[in-house]
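Researcher: I need the complex structure. Ligand is NAP. Inputs:
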Amino acid sequence: MARAVPSPLIAMSGEVLIPQLGFGTYKVTTSDAYPSVRAALDAGYRHIDTAQMYGNEAAVGKAIADSGLARDEVFITSKLNNPYHEPAAAREAFARTLDDLQVEVVDLFLIHWPMAKTTDYVATWRTMTEFQADGRARAVGVSNFQPDHLRTIIDATGNRPALNQIEIHPYLAQRDLVDFHSELGIVTASWSPLGRGALLNDPVITQIATQIGRTPAQVIIRWHLQRGLVVIPKSVHPDRIAANADVFDFELNAEEIARIDALDRGQRFGSHPDKVELA
Ligand SMILES: NC(=O)c1ccc[n+]([C@@H]2O[C@H](COP(=O)([O-])OP(=O)(O)OC[C@H]3O[C@@H](n4cnc5c(N)ncnc54)[C@H](OP(=O)(O)O)[C@@H]3O)[C@@H](O)[C@H]2O)c1
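Model: Output:
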């Protein structure tokens, strides 16, 4: 039986527990997805992040099914793709996700992008809450939502997303949005936590890594963990996948954290939520 990473669990909406460390699968091709997810589960990850948009849910689902792990041992997140926000389309898309993943229930289902200018995202959010009510999503949340989007859906429905998954890394610390989530009781997850790999060569990060005898990726992943964020690094290399999960036997000290905090410069590697819209 594979070794389980002793990842801390974070309570979402007080009920569903999400492992703080997960494995990302964006830009993981269908042929890479199966071996990568198997490698992640072998390395002890118990939380896999996928999405309809990534086109790899079937391979991810097969890897989880073949792992020998019980369904309730692996936390699975997926996301509603942008063209399927209209309620009937969302229902069909969610059913497809469950089929592709070979599961009856996902642990977390997110609206991938708000699409606030082109879609009625309140209606989409209402549809998401149906999936939780009928038991096919243990928790529902959002991704790439800004404060006004969050306020709008909560005011309109009285239902608060369990989690908002947003771009966060040392060059884009997102302190205001994370504080806003905390006030509302919404868990924050960091996407592109390594800045898509670009931060691994930052001199402050590499210097700290050398000083403490860790890899740059491990240093950055600790920074997320010590901020209380869910973190979902991606790699297709088994050695990196394992090393990225080997982060629970050390801590960054306050001075190291402060040096990484000082790197914040509002730099995105992905799209701004206001720029992602259907034509
Ligand atoms: N909700 C959203 O809108 C959204 C958007 C983007 C991403 N995400 C999620 O967040 C996850 C992570 O973000 P991401 O994939 O964009 O980027 P990331 O995890 O920040 O970085 C991945 C990059 O870093 C490299 N890397 C990883 N570990 C490494 C190591 N130990 N040493 C050297 N290089 C390493 C990877 O290369 P190799 O693979 O070659 O090792 C890859 O190029 C995604 O996979 C996805 O699940 C969500």
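Model: Summary of the prediction. The first helix runs from residue 30 to 43.
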